[in-house]
TrEMBL record:
Protein name from the UniProt record: DUF4806 domain-containing protein
Domain of life: Eukaryota
Amino acid sequence: NTNQIKVSTVLENMDKKINKLLENDKRTHSIAFPLPKIPAPFIELLPITNINSLEAVEQLLSVDCDNFNRNVEELKTYLLLKVGNLPSLSACIKTAFDACFTREVASIFSMHGKTKRSFIKLGVYKVIHETLS
């Protein structure tokens, strides 16, 4: 009986130590994750606050732009750094969306564009989708 008590006590202490290590690991992981920086071409444009900013961002993400691939990859990296630490997909989607759009601009879109402008036709949508896929 005393052996069972000793074993139980040792297991409880080990459990506490493991939980403390796991908690410290979470803190270290969040500290070690680099802070996201808005890519140079998108400074002053993100989050998109008006139609002019939206058109400028879409131009940067269009195939016609000289630095199309670099712009897309930089924006994807920025968004990935913004959402990489988050615990759920819904939190990632919300954070990525908020990094790209204000609610006022977002309100002029619907997903497929039946009653408003089409969101899935935007280059920004494609970047968000690729980032979270």
